[in-house]
Design brief:
Blueprint: E1 11-14, E2 28-32, E3 35-39, H1 41-45
Antiparallel strand pairs: 1-2, 2-3
């Protein structure tokens, strides 16, 4: 793509837990900036023109549970990590920190709606 044109990245994901839902047209979802939309399998798997070009195709075996033993892994996340201010910056100025860590009573509980805002900054022209 030329430098004067901007690409727009989206994700099309098949959600196995949605396969038997009668209220959805298919288990396929389109993640597009601020919108998550259920789409048909036909739309998910079609690439009709130059405007819809796959950048990454990810496959996952659906029978891994038969081969892997997950019993050694914890079944709960350690919520205390949300109460620590962790930074990988080598030159962090503590005077510029303008936030407080979560108090125990502010930690998410079952049913809490949580969102992640991740900003990605381009430091230099990408090389492929």
């Amino acid at each position: 793509m030329s430098k004067d044109k901007h690409s727009h990245l989206v994700a099309i994901v098949k959600v196995p837990e949605a396969e038997d839902r009668d209220d959805l047209q298919s288990p396929w979802f389109l993640f597009n900036d601020f919108v998550v939309r259920n789409i048909s399998e036909e739309e998910a798997l079609s690439f009709p023109d130059k405007w819809k070009v796959p950048a990454i195709i990810y496959y996952e075996r659906d029978d891994l549970g038969e081969f892997l033993d997950y019993s050694g892994l914890p079944d709960r996340a350690d919520e205390t990590i949300l109460s620590h201010d962790t930074s990988i910056s080598l030159n962090r100025d503590p005077r510029l920190v303008k936030h407080d860590v979560l108090r125990p009573e502010e930690l998410p509980r079952p049913g809490t709606l949580v969102a992640i805002d991740a900003e990605f900054v381009l430091m230099q022209q990408l090389e492929t």
